[in-house]
Amino acid sequence: MTESKVHVMDRDTKNAIAITGLRKSYEQSPGAEATYAIDDISFEVPEGQFVTLLGPSGCGKTTTLRCVAGLERASQGRIEMGGEVMFDAGRKRDVRPEERPIAMVPQSYGIWPHMRVIDNAAFPLRHGRNRTKGPEVRRRALEMLEQVGLDAVADRWATQLSGGQQQRLALARALLGDPQVLLLDEPLSNLDAKLRAKLRQELRSFQKRFGVSALYVTHDQSEALALSDTVIVMNKGRVEQIDRPERLYDHPRSSFVADFIGSANLFPVREASSGAGGGVLARTDLGLVLCARTAPGEQVRPHDGGFVCVRPEDVDVRADDTGDGQAATGDNAYAGVVESAEFLGDRLELVVRAADLPVTVSTRAGQDLRPGREVVLRLAPAATSYLAS
Ligand SMILES: Nc1ncnc2c1ncn2[C@@H]1O[C@H](COP(=O)(O)OP(=O)(O)OP(=O)(O)O)[C@@H](O)[C@H]1O
Ligand SMILES: [Mg+2]
To answer: Are residues 62 and 199 in the same domain?
Structure first.
């Protein structure tokens, strides 16, 4: 206990959670090489923020969350909450889950079917870190149920609730534990699309209203972008990028992030050199591409390999009426043929074959761009990135 409070930071940058160098491998069969479910993970959840762990199935999101909750023991690294050390593999410090200032909402909600709604909600008041007694329990539980719109069904059995109501009950119960951090593992994944969209907005407004920090897990990129202050993109047990949603979309650091967040055209680079104005000139199968956009805060050292990345909406497409491909002159202009065209109401989604590469293009509807049409593609250098990996 001696080192608690040592790491309290100044008020403006106080972290609800700070994780450093976390590593965890599960038991392997004897003789098998150890593989890490999470491998040297470090990140922070600033107080009051909504931070999301995003990545494909098996990348280590749940493992990370369970380590934070104390349900899983990491083999290396350190976890602090509000400046206090909860876990330190080196110093053999490991605060028990029930002593950590967290509440977890698991994917299945963990609602107890043999209890009424009110008793489910009141559980942390009766058994949690900050216990209450007597009529105060029911009063506070009812008050919270009212906040989440469940006061009218307080005396029903929990099994009589719909999926969305169960999700709200799980949230009410978590909030009644008065946690500093809410841990949420894909809490919307077994609801239908419409309810998901509604509840994610609700979740965000509860989180703000209660001023609680949140660490949220999802593999759904649109959910992550819509909800989060900060997104941590994970891949194979490692952190790929930590950024605000807009920056992740506009400035992905790797082809993995570009591809996982939204859709992206990624052209492998054969040779790269420094281009005009600090950009990168990349030779690809499409031709030479000038990329003015590079990863944020990084001095880009072009090397052979890597990718040119451009979003479909940043590719300009025009019909080429010359019929001989000669219109494709100037920087970043390429001749191609429309391979498929999908009308999506407000826009056209095209696949254009240019130098044998499929290029996805999103353009406003109204142009006559049917399959077979010859076109010129232009990639605005300012919207075209060079990604080193
Ligand atoms: N109890 C366990 N025993 C052995 N291996 C495990 C265990 N739990 C998870 N793993 C392995 O650890 C890796 C990370 O799993 P984890 O459950 O953290 O992934 P995830 O990102 O939450 O995936 P999903 O989106 O499918 O829930 C996977 O390779 C998984 O097979
Ligand atoms: Mg999981």
So the answer is: yes
